[in-house]
Amino acid sequence: MSAAPARLAPRPTARPTPARPRPQLRVVALQRTEAARVPYLVLLVGILLAALLGTLVLNTSMATTSYAIRDRTIELTNAQQRLEALSTQVDQASAPAQVMARAQELGLVPSPGVTYIRLSDRTLIGGS
């Protein structure tokens, strides 16, 4: 640092400015631009139509699936009824009395006794 006193730069003097006339203020009407709203409204209408169309497609798909399920349920019920009827017929046809009656119709006679075959020595056991 030096010991010399610091000199300040002289301040510029303010010059008087000529007085400008103040502008007259007035109320300006708000301008609404309809053109700025049109894309927004088109977007909203498009979203609404897409949502409605999606709902319609989903509802139609669900109804179609419901009818398909109903048709398959009817088919399953009919198949179960046929199975039950056939099972009943098999049970009736395989009853011992029915087998015996059918065998007699075919000319078969009952065996006087039961005969077994011993496979080790090939002999008949039992019977008459």
What do you see in this structure?
Strands 1-2 form a two-stranded antiparallel sheet. It is built from two helices and two strands. The protein is 55% helix and 6% strand. It starts with 33 loop residues before the first helix and ends with a strand. It is elongated. It is mostly helical. β1 (115-118) and β2 form a beta hairpin. The model has no long low-confidence stretch (mean pLDDT 87).
Order of helices and strands: HHEE
Q: What radius of gyration results from the CA coordinates?
A: 54 Å
Give the beta-strand count.
2
Class computed from helices, strands and strand pairing: mainly alpha
What spatial order of strands do you see in the largest sheet?
1-2
Strand proportion: 5-15%
Shape by Cα distribution: elongated
The profile of the biggest β sheet is:
2 strands, antiparallel
Number of helices: 2
Distance between the termini: 149 Å
Low-confidence stretches: none
Q: Helical percent range?
A: 40-55%
